[in-house]
């Protein structure tokens, strides 16, 4: 298993602005997943991008993957106060290896 | 369909006491995991299971034991609790096979304090 490293550690924006979070990893992957954690709750899966994909969309979420740079980014467009949460990336090597999580990015959206 | 259910939600222990955290899932998932989350540390994997009757160690297994006697349940035990085990514990599960099955479903957590 390998751990992704999210950057920045914390991000504060105004409602309506876009939020961009980055994830770096060290070795080749099969896929990379993004999760959200609201305060005091369990993680919720947002989106999975495979190693042969470069971009994926889900509602206001846009994820990109650059395997040559071993990095991914999560863009939340037109952010809302309800998007306030911590966001984690989880790169998966292959097979049955369990996901491990880094420290995440704490996003605060100010109304 | 309740998803992943963790019991208890809160617990306070004295040093040296024992307890068992229960995780139950009703989605017929093969894989189950126990994580702990400490402030500023992210989530760390304690133990996991790839099927009934099997368990494996994660990143921080010391001081914990697990059992997977039934497919739907994954138990995490603390034989002699220590203050360093004060944490929020999360259980997760997922299906097996194929990228579409790889997303984890998490429980709502157990907040444990060891005094």
Alpha-beta classification of chain A: mainly beta
The averaged pLDDT of chain B comes out at 94
Helical percentage of chain A: under 10%
* Rounded Rg of chain B: 14 Å
Largest interface: A-B, 24 and 26 residues
Number of helices of chain A: 0
Strand order of the largest sheet of chain A: 1-3-8-7-6
Mind describing the biggest β-sheet of chain B? 7 strands, mixed
Specify the overall morphology of chain B.
globular
Overall SS class of chain B: mainly beta
Using the alpha-carbon principal axes, give the shape of chain A: globular
Q: Mean pLDDT score of chain A, rounded?
A: 94
Number of strands of chain A: 10
Q: In terms of per-residue confidence, which ranges of chain A show pLDDT below 50 for 5 or more consecutive residues? A: none
Radius of gyration of chain A using CA atoms only: 13 Å
List low-pLDDT spans of chain B. none
Q: How would you characterize the overall build of this protein?
A:
The complex is a heterodimer of chains A (111) and B (115). Chain A contains no helices and ten strands. Chain A has strands at residues 5-7, 10-14, 19-24, 31-37, 43-50, 55-58, 61-66, 71-76, 85-92, 105-110. In chain A, the strands form two sheets. A five-stranded antiparallel beta sheet of chain A has the order 1-3-8-7-6, with no helix packed on it. The termini of chain A are far apart. The model of chain B has no long low-confidence stretch (mean pLDDT 94). Chain B is an all-beta fold. In chain B, strand 7 and strand 8 (73-78) form a beta hairpin. Chain B has no helices and eleven strands. The radius of gyration of chain B is 14 Å and the shape is globular. The A-B interface holds A 1, 3, 30-31, 33, 35, 40-45, 48, 50, 88, 92, 96, 98-104 and B 4, 31, 33, 35, 40-45, 48, 50, 58-59, 90, 92, 96, 99, 102-109.
């Amino acid at each position: 298993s390998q751990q992704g490293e999210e950057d920045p550690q914390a991000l504060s924006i105004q409602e309506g602005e876009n939020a961009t979070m980055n994830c770096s990893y060290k070795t080749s992957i099969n896929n990379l997943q993004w999760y959200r954690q609201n305060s005091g709750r369990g993680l919720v899966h947002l989106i999975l991008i495979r190693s042969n994909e470069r971009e994926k969309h889900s509602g206001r979420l846009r994820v990109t993957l650059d395997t040559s740079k071993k990095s991914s980014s999560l863009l939340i467009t037109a952010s809302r106060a309800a998007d306030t949460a911590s966001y984690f990336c989880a790169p998966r090597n292959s097979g049955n290896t369990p996901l491990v999580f880094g420290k995440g990015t704490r996003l605060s959206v100010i109304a | 369909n309740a998803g992943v259910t963790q019991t208890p939600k809160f617990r306070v222990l004295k040093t040296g006491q024992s307890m068992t955290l229960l995780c139950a899932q009703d989605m017929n998932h093969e894989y189950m995991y126990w994580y702990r989350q400490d402030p500023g540390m992210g989530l760390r994997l304690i133990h996991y299971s790839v099927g009934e009757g099997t368990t494996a160690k994660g990143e921080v297994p010391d001081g914990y034991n697990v059992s997977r006697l039934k497919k739907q349940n994954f138990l995490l035990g603390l034989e002699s609790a220590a203050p360093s085990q004060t944490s929020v514990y999360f259980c997760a599960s997922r299906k097996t096979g194929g990228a579409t099955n790889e997303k984890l479903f998490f429980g709502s957590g157990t907040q444990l304090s060891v005094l």
